[in-house]
Amino acid sequence: MSGGGVDIMDRFWSAPPVSRTIVAAMFVESALVHSGLVSGMRVIFYPSWIFKFPPELWRLLSSFLLTGGGLSFLFDLYFMFTYASGLELTSSRFTQPGDFFTYVLFLATIILVVAGFILKSMVFTQALLLGFIYTYAQDNRGKKAHFIIVQIPVELLPWATLVFTLVMGGPQAALQQGVGVVAAHLYDFLTRIYPTFQGGRNYIQTPAAIKRYFGANRSAFTNKGYGSSFRPGQPVPQQQSRGWTSGFSGAWGGRGAGRRLGGD
């Protein structure tokens, strides 16, 4: 294997567990579908097939894992890996074991209800990605990011991406993708804005079982292959996040559904 291949695999195996699992599942499912070995109709969200007997419950997950075809297959995997792992490792929102998993589960539930049952969308991958970019943008407010050939405040990236999708894919594509912003903003409101500024209670807490699964009963500081875990109440060192739409994160500056929007 070439040195570049080794570096890619090393980075993958050093990634945090939730992000690594999502990307691995995306790779397997999308490779099978786009190679023709599995029909795309077997993985999309379709309520009539989910609630029949026997129920095809895997569609509740597989509808979040299908990338675009062609180059979008590679770009979607890269962007999902970069954003998800960046949030899971460095976001101050997810300092306790299992917090990021709970966040992903919350986003997926809202997207499933709104995009799936209300808007009748069948694939939610782009909505989940946009949810990640919205949270990333909120965490990095005040910084600049490249979008196509210009620099814009990073907090404007979700809206710039939606405009690009509207132009390239039409209103329906933008509406379905925009559900990710709705889900991520609702999470932000319920976990940060409402408790902090209105004195309300944060009802979205990571269940004890999930915390234990992700190592809550271990020592306060534990070195792992993908980084470090910290017990509640322990300070967490901040690192620079990397994202697929930020001008300070890599060669790709922004994107719509499976298209390159810009770079350094």
TrEMBL record:
The keyword ATP-binding does not apply. It is a multi-pass membrane protein. Residues 227-264 are annotated as: Disordered. Residues 250-264 have a biased composition (Gly residues). Its main location: endoplasmic reticulum. It is found in: Endoplasmic reticulum membrane. Pfam families: DER1 (PF04511). InterPro entries: DER1, Rhomboid-like_sf. The chain crosses the membrane at residues 22-45, 57-80, 100-119. Keywords: Endoplasmic reticulum, Membrane, Transmembrane, Transmembrane helix. May be involved in the degradation of misfolded endoplasmic reticulum (ER) luminal proteins. This is Derlin. The lineage of its organism: Eukaryota, Fungi, Dikarya, Ascomycota, Pezizomycotina.
